[in-house]
């Protein structure tokens, strides 16, 4: 009984738990995972191509779209410091976070540029940005590709996306 009361008091007076912040120049693993200091951060609300994922560019030529998406993010980051708000952990032990560079949401930039998709299974935050990228044939949308979540479990019924596939 005494232990339960102690836990109750601890919860009552503890207040809200603050999210952790990470700041620094990231080491980019792929277009949705970065390291800042000791933090491995998975960007919340988006999914980007795997580094071994292949796609077709707007001319119908093969490209390693996971590597291309990572390289585009590295160019965008340009050695600038990121500020990330970390809000939890995923099942792989990565910190989940929302990051910005010079005040711009990195995930929004990735999705709007067409190098990542809104991960609707977890968030609807970037759906309008994905719609914009699709309408403007930005990045992956100009060619043909498989959504990253489907790429990881692809089979005969996997859907192919992009403007090139629709022509």
Textual characterization of the structure:
About 8% of the residues have low confidence. Helices cover 30% and strands 27% of the residues. Strand 2 and strand 3 form a beta hairpin. It has one domain: OB fold (Dihydrolipoamide Acetyltransferase, E2P) (Beta Barrel). Strands 1, 2, 3, 4, 8, 9 and 10 form a 7-stranded mixed beta sheet that branches. The chain is α+β, with helices and mostly antiparallel strands and 167 residues long.
Helix content: 25-40%
Number of helices: 6
Compute the number of structural domains: 1
N→C terminal distance = 70 Å
Which CATH top level class fits?
Answer: Mainly Beta
Low-confidence stretches: 5-17
Order of helices and strands: HEEEEEEEHEEEHEHHH
Query: How much beta, percentage-wise?
Result: 25-35%
Shape: globular
Please give the CATH architecture: Beta Barrel
Q: According to CATH, what is the topology?
A: OB fold (Dihydrolipoamide Acetyltransferase, E2P)
Whole-number mean pLDDT:
89
Integer-rounded radius of gyration: 19 Å
Which structural category fits the helices and strands?
Answer: alpha+beta
- Sheet with the most strands? 7 strands, mixed
Tell how many strands the DSSP assignment holds.
11
Summarize it.
This protein is an alpha+beta fold and 167 residues long. Helices cover 30% and strands 27% of the residues. The protein is built from 6 helices and 11 strands.
Task: Please outline the helices and strands.
Layout: H1 2-14, E1 20-24, E2 27-30, E3 33-36, E4 39-43, E5 46-47, E6 54-56, E7 62-64, H2 65-77, E8 82-89, E9 95-101, E10 104-105, H3 106-112, E11 117-118, H4 127-135, H5 148-151, H6 163-166
């Amino acid at each position: 009984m005494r232990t339960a009361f102690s836990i109750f008091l601890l919860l009552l007076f503890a207040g809200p738990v603050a999210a952790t912040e990470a700041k620094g120049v990231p080491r980019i693993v792929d277009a949705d995972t970065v390291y800042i200091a000791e933090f491995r951060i998975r960007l919340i609300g988006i999914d980007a191509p795997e580094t071994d994922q292949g796609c077709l560019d707007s001319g119908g030529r093969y490209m390693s779209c996971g590597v291309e998406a990572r390289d585009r993010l590295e160019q965008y980051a340009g050695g600038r410091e990121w500020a990330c708000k970390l809000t939890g952990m995923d099942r792989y032990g990565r910190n989940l976070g929302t990051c910005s560079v010079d005040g711009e949401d990195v995930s929004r930039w990735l999705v709007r540029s067409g190098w990542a998709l809104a991960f609707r299974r977890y968030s609807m935050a970037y759906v309008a940005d994905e719609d914009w990228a699709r309408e403007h044939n930005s990045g992956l949308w100009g060619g043909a590709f498989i959504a990253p979540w489907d790429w990881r479990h692809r089979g005969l019924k996997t859907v192919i996306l992009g403007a090139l596939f629709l022509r």
